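User: For a benchmark we're assembling, each entry needs the component sequences followed by a predicted structure for the full assembly. Here are entry 17's components. Please fill in the structure.
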Amino acid sequence: MAALVPPTPATTPPPAAAPARRTESLRDAYGKTLVELGKEDPTMAVLDADLSGSTRTALFGKQFPDRYFNVGVAEQNMMGIAAGLATGGRCVFASTFAVFAAGLAYNTVRQSLGYNRLNVKVVATHGGLTVGGDGGTHQMLEDVALMRSIPGMSVVVPADAPETAAATRTFHASYGPAYMRLSRESFPVVTDGKFQLGHFGVLRDGKDLTYAANGIMVGRALDAADEMAKSGVDVRVVNCSSMKPFDNHTILRAAQETGAILTMEEHTVLTGLGAAVATATSERYPVPVRRIGTPDLFGESGDPWKLMEKYGLSQERILAESFEMLKLRGTKGREGA
Amino acid sequence: MAGTYSPETLAELERVALEVRRNVLRMTHKAGSGHPGGSLSCTDLLTALYFHELRVDPKNPRWPGRDRFVLSKGHAAPALYSVMAEKGFLPKEELSTLRELGSRLQGHVDAGKLPGIEASTGCLGQGISMAVGMALDARLAKRDSRVYAVLGDGECQEGETWEAFMAGAHFKLDNLTAIIDRNGIETDGTTEEIMALEPLADKTRAFGWHTLVVDGHSFPALLDAFAEAKTVKGRPTMIIAKTVKGKSVSFMENKAAYHGKPPSSEELQKGLRELGVEN
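Assistant: Structure for entry 17:
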């Protein structure tokens, strides 16, 4: 078992424009929750692939060495072993970085966990651009699309540490293969720590426009909504953490009640949240939808928050798109619709 | 440590294997697709496992104390279904539904459809990892059941198999026995032409497995190997079973062409005649 690496401090804090929200590590929340669950469920097992300090599964390994398996740098084998362990009826968590979990091991996740419908929870850390310095090879921007495409796979992108803890508990309490995407950086705390699969939380009500966001972009959506309020625009913010099952109801209600939706995600704009919202609305209640996400490009090394600016996941871009969308929908507010 | 097996025991195994071979030809012919070559090469392995070795109950396929068997080379499904039908896991009449829409007999084995199949496989390299996980599960649950996996030799060109071999030895899984169906032929030709595996036994020994090389068409040799595996402590056992692709059907033997090609009507007739029946 690898030694426990101390938590990595966040690099540069978010830009000064953002209100100072308290930040917490999603990975820490995951690791601590695993230990709690391990005490409650003596059959639960956890696996890692030589990144146990980074993913925080080492916390579980220290407490429950008999039920903890570090398989080395062998992600496909980790998924297969996790599946085999789960055949006996136990709940199994398997963790590594998102690029390895969803990318390198894709077909093992697809067949050994997905096709076999086994109770394995893949919790991947280091998703998205905010991996920072490791660069484009490690900045996984396609994982949500890949994992959502597997039949029967639940997919969650939590917005903050409390939601991460709650989703980890939900995973443990529900049967079936599931994927959760966490990040290297600490995120602002924005939720009340409640989570339900297939349900989106409305973190801020509004009638002029909806921001549908997940992951790090939820905090940014709330900040932008505060900014829009200064211009008299009342923005609803929806936390789309349960990417599958997807909460079509809350999205369609937002379409009906606010008339336009701006999506934002730290993921390729081609196949993630934006695509899901556009699909849901165009089939049932077409309204203008615009998507903020990473363009069809690989990432690169750099400071996480500067990368977010460069790839268009910035408050400036959110505000500019918001005013464009108000023009698109032609009127302002429910009463004028 | 050669065991003695009664003539009745050996005759029964021969009888089952012969019937399984006939069914492999019938099933793949009727389906119009499938993998007869690699099914015939592992027929004796599967027969020996199900009719002498595995602790399983066809009437209660999910009995927790059972041994687990994983067919990592999931394309040998016709042979496994046929062995399982002989054992009573499914009606023999159902064998003719192989690969049909709505059938429990999928082209590659499906645990969600047919009780008694422990793992859905097909994409190669993954079944052995699942078997490692099952062996760990048995140990954690303090269950004395054993785990068996049959791999193809071409399958051993997949990197994941070697990841699993490393893990099996690292975790000291003496409740795990893997059998490589060493027929020497893969889709495109011989393994040694396409991507050489030899010296295979040296490799699995170097990976920490107690390794035996046996005649994969000799029931006494296979039963001896299974018995020896159960005496090994602290490491898993690898049985490299030397087999013949297309075994017992003369025109299929050692022919890569029959890896994934079913017999034609004429070939079915000829093959069945060689196996002692007219149809």
